[in-house]
Design goal:
The chain is of the alpha/beta class and about 325 residues long. Helices cover about 40% and strands about 20% of the residues. It is built from 16 helices and 10 strands. Strands 1, 2, 3, 4, 5, 6, 7, 8, 9 and 10 form a 10-stranded mixed beta sheet that branches. It starts with a helix and ends with a helix.
Length: about 325
């Protein structure tokens, strides 16, 4: 098989090819050398299909980022079994952010939910998402990117992270941007949610030549959050497994310095002044991180300050410069 053939390789199950209408949601999985873990996700999607009414149609879109472990053969067997609407696309190894961009372009669903290759959705996840979304009025949905639910730890059966603030709707739901959720309301922990595809098309990952094969997703979510909020519910829709291995975005913090620099830069320039009083620890961490990863990537102090906007953010970066420099040496 030639390089050109490998790059353009794709196939779909008969169930996906014969869909008479547009699926409501695309479940998108970017993957790299995760053949063994994909079985858990596949089994959870079978249970999902059994517990989801026929009118809530979904497709499973897999973007294979150059796997060499037999992932393609495994997916092909599942497609031949035709128990799920599967669409598979192979790309030369380019990174998760490239795979995410491609998934959004190729998705047929009105909504897109990204689910990692080593996780699983609860059997009632799509019922929960669909019922919550359709219970909202058109005017409410217009200002929302989608619905976000909690994750559950399969080992303990407990929700992952901190609960929603009870002073808002009794803690049952919260309408907020991702940045407000984290830095104003201090709700942390893994979550899962879908986003309208029309919005995702407006906010693709930047393909910068210096970032390698990963770009922090937080930049996308924070950018979307400046215009759209999310409807967060305090109910689980995903089992969160903390597996080790060759994940598509594996790598240590030092190896991620080129990528993380842009996340720190975004936070310092767009969030620092707004959230310093609400979440000083996170904002000061971003100021330290900017100089730390700036020095790690060979940037000068002038470069770092040129990338920093505003008097207060620059003052924080300069004040915390010794800490950033010391951490950059580790």
């Amino acid at each position: 098989m030639s390089d050109k053939e490998v790059h353009t390789l794709s196939f779909e199950s008969r169930r996906a090819a014969s869909m008479a209408s547009t699926p409501w949601i695309t479940l998108a999985t970017p993957t790299f050398n995760r053949r063994r873990e994909l079985g858990r996700l596949y089994d959870s999607l079978l249970r999902l299909r059994e517990n989801t009414p026929a009118h809530i149609e979904f497709e499973w879109l897999i973007i294979d980022d150059g796997s060499t472990d037999g992932t393609i053969d495994q997916i092909a067997r599942w497609a031949d079994d035709n128990r799920l609407p599967i669409r598979y696309f192979y790309q030369t190894n380019s990174g998760k952010h490239v795979a995410d961009n491609r998934a959004v372009r190729l998705a047929r669903g009105e909504m897109v939910l990204s689910i990692d290759s080593d996780d699983e959705l609860t059997p009632d996840a799509l019922n929960l998402f669909h019922d919550t979304w359709t219970s909202l009025s058109d005017s409410q949905r217009a200002g929302l990117k989608g619905v976000t639910a909690r994750c559950i730890d399969p080992a303990t059966g407990r929700l992952v992270g901190t609960p929603l603030p009870r002073r808002h709707n009794g803690g049952h739901f919260l309408i907020a941007s991702p940045q407000d959720l984290r830095h104003r309301y201090h709700v942390k922990g893994e979550m899962v949610g879908f986003t309208r595809r029309d919005i995702l098309l407006q906010y693709p990952h930047e393909l910068r030549p210096d970032v390698g094969k990963f770009m922090p997703e937080g930049i996308i979510w924070y950018s979307i959050g400046r215009k759209y909020k999310e409807y967060v519910i305090d109910r689980p829709a995903r089992l969160y497994h903390q597996d080790e291995g060759s994940a598509i975005m594996s790598g240590g913090s030092r190896n991620r310095a080129p990528q993380n620099y842009y996340l720190w830069q975004y936070q310092v320039n767009n969030l620092f002044s707004r959230y310093l009083l609400h979440d000083p620890k996170s904002m000061l961490k971003a100021a330290v991180g900017l100089s730390m990863d700036g020095f790690r990537t060979g940037r000068s102090l002038c470069d770092i300050l040129r990338d920093t906007r505003g008097f207060l953010p620059r003052l924080a970066v300069i004040t915390l410069l010794p800490a950033g420099w010391l951490l950059s040496r580790r």
